[in-house]
């Protein structure tokens, strides 16, 4: 990578791994063969000299994959000012250290890869949701969580309402709740459902959160049903939202005695 040369695989099987330069007439090559007595490979030939012309050097470098870049920049994940490296920081870093100009998309993939090395993958995080919900309820009295999966055991919905938020709303807030949903960006997408109120300082007061696949009648009925179970019966309850038909249908079904305002 430092010299901006690229190679390609000429042969790869269980016993032989043969690399050559990307340019057909170049003499650079590396050939390794597995030894008979074990799983180790031995270098049989290595010509570490490129005879291809300089004008044929590719500066985007196919061997500078997102995984390789991620492992290279991982030790410098946190910068001197405390910020995590962003894709544009990775582009600058690779240009300065190796003279390689990479695309923003590859830098973004590299950042996602080294974050997965530090914090784990999204798939691993989803698997921790049952444990997270259990510990959250054990350590925070009155907290309510709910996890729903589909028939194949894959994540479908997750609801969370902290006990402190529920107690504060019941004791100190006007019985007016604003509900809305927002689309989530990222690999898996989905929708976040929120229920908020307004405190005495006219600040937003969070009551509950939920995550689901889509913003439809089924998902809103699930979220509102969880919210109803968390809040219990509240006199003169009022809901405020936009004109989303699924929200209106869900409130009419789950909170038939509540007042609905647009």
UniProtKB/TrEMBL annotation:
Pfam families: MULE. This is MULE transposase domain-containing protein. The lineage of its organism: Eukaryota, Viridiplantae, Streptophyta, Embryophyta, Tracheophyta. It comes from the Eukaryota. It comes from Dipteronia dyeriana. Residues 176-260 form the MULE transposase domain.
